Amino acid sequence: MILRRVIEHVREQNWTAIGIDFCIVVIGVFVGIQVSNWNETRLSRDKSAVFTERLKDDLRKEGWRYQFLLAYYRDVRDATETTADALSGKAPLSNEAFLVNAYRATQYKQGAGRRATYDELISTGGIGLIEDRELLQLAVRAYSLTTLENLAKEGIESHYRQLFRMTIPNETQRALARQCGDRYILPGDFRGFDQVIDYPCETGLPEADINAAVDALRSAPQTLPYLRLRVADIETRLQDLTGNNRDVFEGFLEIAKEQP
């Protein structure tokens, strides 16, 4: 319609009308672009808010895993050191307590990480939607950290774990797992950390079986060196989590305070 009017005005050489039509077209295009830009900005802002909250939620859950595994491996470290001290004569234990701690020294956990939002942002190129620079920095640092995975890998592959599983009869190992193994807690439960592995238990095994298992561990020449190696390896990783990566640890503590 505008084009037909312009053609008519040109034929009539009505330059004033032509100028007015031109201004109408320019203003219309400008307004259209501005509305489009505003709408795009609004959509981008909405997406940014959604992804920011999703990322925060994932990081809260990842922070719980971080603190849970930190507490868990401290308990494993303590059980390992208790076993080593008993074996060296530094702090004697009853045979049943020795066997329980010796078993718990073999344990490991990893837990499922919560990184779906971060991976989606990276794969789609949408990482720029996270305008909170501190939040983004925490996500980058947290999801590039491999210490938790290394803790689990070293637990699975530890020489002491292999020695224990080769030395102790399978029925004894099953009884230990049943009576003194890891307990489950719901993700997000901060109060149940000490109930997962560090709790009082009785094996329910006959005294003869307990004594035979303990004698087998004591008589293996590599038991004490492997225990000491396990303690040192765990402590190295714990120092990495609380010292070298202190900023990640503190970042998790801060984001945990921002519960929605």
Features:
mainly alpha, 260 residues
How do the SSEs run, as a string of H and E? HHHHHHHHHHH
Can you summarize the main beta sheet? none
Mean pLDDT: 87
Shape type: elongated
Structural overview:
74% of the residues lie in helices and 0% in strands. It is an all-alpha fold. The longest helix has 74 residues, at 15-88. The radius of gyration is 32 Å and the shape is elongated. The mean pLDDT is 87.
Provide a brief overview of the structure:
With 260 residues, the protein is an all-alpha fold. It has helices spanning 2-11, 15-88, 95-104, 116-124, 133-144, 147-157, 159-167, 170-180, 207-219, 223-244, 246-256.
How are the SSEs placed, and which strands pair?
Layout: H1 2-11, H2 15-88, H3 95-104, H4 116-124, H5 133-144, H6 147-157, H7 159-167, H8 170-180, H9 207-219, H10 223-244, H11 246-256
Helix pairs in contact: 1-2, 2-3, 2-4, 2-10, 2-11, 3-9, 5-11, 6-10, 7-10, 10-11
